[in-house]
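User: Batch of two.

Assistant: Item 1 of 2:
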Amino acid sequence: MKQTHLSLKQRLLVAATLFGMFFGAGNLIFPVHLGQLAGRNLIPATIGFILTAVGIPILGVAAIGNTHSDGLQALASKVGRRYGCFFTCLLYLTIGPCFAIPRCATTSFTTGIAPMLGDAVNGRMALFLFSAVFFALALLFSLRPGNITLWIGKIINPLFLFFLGILIVSALLRPGAPAFATIPDASYQSGALFQALSEGYGTMDAIAGLAFGIVVINVIRQMGVQDDENIAREVLHSGILAGLLMAFIYILTILMGAQSLGLFAASENGGIALAQISSHYLGRAGILILAVTITFACLKTSIGLVTSCAETFEKMFPNRLAYTTWAVLFTAFSFLISNAGLSTIIRYSVPVLMLIYPPAIALMLLALFGKHFNHDRKVYFWVTVCTWSASLFDFFKALPEELQILFHLDAAVELAEKFLPFFSLNLGWILPAVLGLIIGLLFQKRKKTLQAFA
């Protein structure tokens, strides 16, 4: 039955589905670690983290809805048809089977399962068996995309929030030290807001927002809303609700991390911090609760990612492979990559994220404010070209040092540090993007002038 808007119950369910797809293990690990690093400077750090870990992902979902696009390819094709195909494949493979989906399984194993096994168990064999079960479940749910709201919104989300709530409440009621009395890490002594911006990138949610847009739109259509304008409005409403819940949890987990400095030194990563906090407050039960929480968080994110990737590739390459085949292929490939280990996945994912984040953010902003320049293709083209040119230097900088030296990229990084403003803050792409905007607008103005004299 057609309807002009969702009921409150439906809107909350869509928001819960979106939250469930966004909020994975990385969304727990990064803020807890951030809290330990930021210490008493947690307020500016929290603001910076929420800007990139909440604000930009919601912009991505809103960009899909606002332009009435039926997916990332349609949106990216405003730059050019070939670019639309290229960027869509690159982004979905990054947040899909190459990095994000394998990271879900490996993070849940490393953080939640491995601490319970001890040294007597073969780690590689245990990871192999765990990831096999993990991806079997992810595939089972993903093969029924019409039920994604049921699986994530009604079943997995409540279980995840229940176990997470136990951990957070236990830690906040008995803090190790007052948060504002803790000493920040040297990297957060000053400029905590800008330092935290790049921490938010690690969640991968900024680019996932572009990918999840199509899933949310399909869910809303299944609920009876068919008009594009109404769908765009509901996408934005649901995105805001999901963002508020994410921000609330981020604030609590960052605070939990800062307060833990009274008990532990800043850990190497948030997974270790979570294990320490859980064990301290809840003992052996805490380790089990952490394992369940992390596994549920990763599982629901994997379901959303496999579903998004399979639906998108089926649409991009019609009459090639069916949705089921794509889902099986992506799940199997993710299983293989996950067994490379968490450290290896992170090591190679960071440079790729630094490469594609800037053009993804630029595309979102162009889509949201495109009505002011009539979505002119020249503007999209020049902003994208200039942004990619700058993000290449971020890619070079994020590569392992030995690769920089091997390919003589260290000289290019030094050059960017000297001449590219805000490069040290990982924001070196901003001024080139503005330059591209100016060039695109000048081309648009010239076109209008020629048309006027024609």
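Item 2 of 2:
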Amino acid sequence: MTTVVIATSGSIIIGMAALATEGASWYLAARNASTAADLAALAGAGALTRGAQPSPVALDTASRNGFSAASPVQVYSPPVTGAYAGNAAAVEVSIAQTPRLGLAGMFLASAPVVRARAVALANADEEVCILALNQLDLGGNSTTQATRCALAAGAGGINVLSNATVRAATLVTTGACQNCTTGNVWADNSRSARPVIITNRATPVTDPFESLASWTPTPTTCRTVPIGKGNVSITPAQGAICTDLSVGVNDTLTMAPGLYYFRNANFTLQGRINAPGVTMVFTGDPDRVGTLRISDKTGGTLTGPTSSLIPGHSAAQGVVVYRDARSTANGSTRELQLNGGSTMTLRGAVYAPTSDVIVNGNTSLTTNCLSLVAWNMSFSGQESTTVDVAGCAGYTNYGLLRTVRLVE
């Protein structure tokens, strides 16, 4: 009798130990499946933001985390269950796996099925008003206000220098963000929270005017612009501007709406400009392309057109300045200067994909629609710049910070 009790007790002890040991392994398997489902759903949603098919990416991610399609792993885009069922911007991943039974098989007919499910949502929910395709420097005693949009940069990163004041909702870069957490960098003027800071991002913010960079401008015959003291009016039909154009402090230039070519010519603004609905294209020989310089004394109105003036390039809608992407004359003497005085209205997009833009004046520039995209950008001096793209909807393009997040 004693032998039977001992044998029975031993079996129970062994069974309990087996269940405890294998129960821990089942718990670990469930946790691993949950992690793999989360990562696979995020990867699939990330593929959506790039215009790719989410299923192959999600399956590959699950496989790399120990769960192959035979587990099985199911990917649904859009999801078929849950709160995001039918949402084309979401990806659902489910994983089901039956662990191998060990000693617990003495007491269980089969192991419990390990299940995990995750849903990730691809968002295009943050506007980018300043996009440096390479590097963004915020220095001097400048103040840059972008509390309702993001400041973005490429591999060159974002550098907050000297006594610069930065107020921005988000700072995002594929490189580093220097002094972004220690300088005078806050989400708003209450100084209660830092911006959302995203560094070493795997993919850069998409250039919203990228298709325009493939365009080859073809300026028309050169013409003479009779700029002198007083008021001067010009129209685009008179031909390309092929010599440097300067508007003095006491001068006023009125530009009729339309497309203006500056061929191997610089345009310097110190006085007033009245230019509603214009697109200025700086082009010519790649090593001689001119540039635009707006001083901090400039006043008046400079706005882009409500529809594209360049046939076949809808991205040019609202573009007020485009400097030819083919330009090789991109040194310090060819920077675009966008200072502008407090009495100047600048509205639209400035696109200089291979050029530098500097803002280094001593006054203030405020606009509710300014989409800046350039290779490098620098804000310095005493300039106070307030930028936003809230007024750009339906008028001109701007960058979008596409993010993905787990929602289930």
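The first strand starts at residue 73 and ends at 76.
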